[in-house]
Amino acid sequence: MSRTKIDDSRDLAGFGYRQELDRSLGSFSSFAAGFSYISILTGVFQMFSLGFAAAGPAFFWTWPVVFLGQLTVGLGFAELAAHYPLSGGLYQWSRRIGSPALGWIAGFVYLASSLLSLAVVALALQATLPQIAPVFQLIGDGANPVDRARNAVFLGCVLIGLTTAINAAGVRLLARINNVGVFAELLGVALLIILLLARARRGPSVLFQIQTPGRAGSGSAAWLSALFAAAVMPSYVLYGFDTAGTLAEETRDPRRRAPWAILRAISAAGLAGALLIIAGLLAVSDPAMPELGEITGGLPLIVKQSLGPELGNVFLGAVIFAVTVCALAVQAGTVRLIFAMARDNSLPCARILARVQHETRTPIVPALVTGAAAALILLINMNMPRIMETLCSLAIVWANLAYLMVSFPLLLARLRGWPHRLAVESRAIPAASAVRPFALGRWGLGLNIVSVFWGLMVIVNMSWPREEIYGADQWGRFAAVLATTGLVGVGAVLYLAVRRRGTEILTEHAASIVPAPDSGQPIAPLRPVPAD
Question: The domain containing residue 518 runs over which residues?
Fold first, then answer.
């Protein structure tokens, strides 16, 4: 075992855990995990039509606003990743910077969001495959919204089956596919941007053309309402960058690599996504085409019209590969979250869920559970015409609620002296790692305040009962509010049941010895650390 891996294992033992997962990820693999979760080719192609339908070409301006807001959240997460390089990321950060109860609820909400996210990503195949060839519209002819929804569910379940098998095979195979996928996606995005710009039919003025179809009022009130609705698009794409922190126990030297991987992932996605949207809008033949705001049109339609059917299909094929890699990353993060909560004895059937397969050094049962749960979500909602819009909005609300359960306690901790005084007093950082490789310094408090207000705004905006997202049904329009309230309520009841049973690191996952910093020899036994 290399000295770096020994040091990483000793660092992990300082938190009470023994090294079980395969610590084999380097800097690029760590970055690739976060970038592929965001996946520009997946999210922008899938959600372009939703943003365009809400506000027209001017929906582009919601992208930089959402990017800057999420960047403030990512900066706080990067600092936490340097302090707590643990599998499960957000769950661990929330419980250690806040409280065990808050950490459990944050983990539970993010787990629900991740399952929804995997289901929604799998639905992205419907936005691409039938445009390559009608044969992929296996159910009906695609004219009926219900047939499109059912076909999307079928294609999505096939994809989830594939990603489940790969995730169960181990992180090394996952990383290889992920790395190739991210390299191909970066190259594909760059080439696509160049080709679309070379075929530009309009000037930058198109970016300021706003459409407010069917909105009450006029002037600033109408276009502001349209832009808030269009913000669903970038809000869906620009999250999941914390995945690099979630895979920390499989990353070499995670205190140094994971924080920068988080920031590189969101920065690369922000820049690439902005350029891709601009290039697509400049290449559009007619901004008034209603097809641009439909799931069967959108950016894939622009690509095929601008590049021709043959070359356009080549890039749509690259989108399909990106969707697959994105689903892999979403499922990988979900598996690590389940594993992290289970080894703390904080989930039902904890010992089964936390078991790591010796040959692959991967928790296989969580991979199977994640795949089955995501497929079940699709099957339950298969007759809902607005399945993608509804599940997407719920995933956004729940993800940002979980993010807020990290950002807000982090703000309170900063006001009490974190990271300097509290980190030392609570021994949150093992002595050998007391020098942090990443810190926000004097900028931390201000950025943290912005991230909290931003998180609140996103949750309110995405929960707003919009007819174009949740439908016209009187109760259905409040799906996000009702579902979120129910989710938090169920989570609180489950936490009380788990706490009554007693939560602590399962004995088989607890570190029994800590290697000495210089010799690597055992120096002290560790007992399982209570989660409370």
Answer: 3-525
Classify residue 297: in a domain, yes or no.
Answer: yes
Tell me which residue has tokens 């949750």: 459
For residues 482 and 390, what is the distance between their CA atoms, to the nearest angstrom? 13
292, 284 Cβ separation under 8 angstroms: yes
Beta strands (DSSP E) in 75-151 are: none
* pLDDT number for residue 175: 84
Q: Looking at the predicted structure, is the pLDDT value of residue 397 above 60? A: yes
| Predicted local confidence at residue 10, as pLDDT | 86
- The predicted structure's pLDDT at residue 519: 38
Report which residue type is found at 512.
S
Check if the beta carbon of residue 406 is closer than 8 Å to that of residue 77: yes
Pairing status of strand 522-525 against strand 513-515 = antiparallel
Token reading at 31:
């970055």
DSSP letter (8 states) at residue 440:
-
Backbone angles phi, psi at 231, to 5 degrees: -65, -10
Q: How many domains does the chain have?
A: 1
Give the separation between CA 93 and CA 245, rounded to whole angstroms.
10
> Cα-flanking dihedrals φ and ψ of residue 514, to 5°?
-120, 120
- Do 218 and 254 touch, CB atoms closer than 8 A? no
The answer to whether residue 532 sits within a structural domain is no
Provide the CB-side half-sphere exposure for 500 (13 A, CA): 6
Q: What is the pTM for the complete model shown?
A: 0.87
* Cα of 351 vs its chain's centroid, Å: 26
**Beta-bridge mates of residue 513:** 525
Dihedral angle sign, alpha carbons of residues 231, 487, 509, 352: negative
- DSSP percent split of the chain into helix, strand, coil, nearest 5: 75, 5, 25
For residue 149, which of 420, 382, 371 has the smallest C-alpha distance?
Answer: 382
8 Å CB contact between 60 and 76:
no
Query: From CA 85, how far away is CA 92, in angstroms rounded?
Result: 9
Query: What DSSP line would sit under 363-419, residue for residue?
Result: -HHHHHHHHHHHHHHHHHTTT-TTHHHHHHHHHHHHHHHHHHHHHHHHHHHHHTTTT
Output the domain CATH number for residue 20: 1.20.1740.10
Q: What is the largest CA-CA distance in the chain?
A: 73
3-state secondary structure of 102: helix
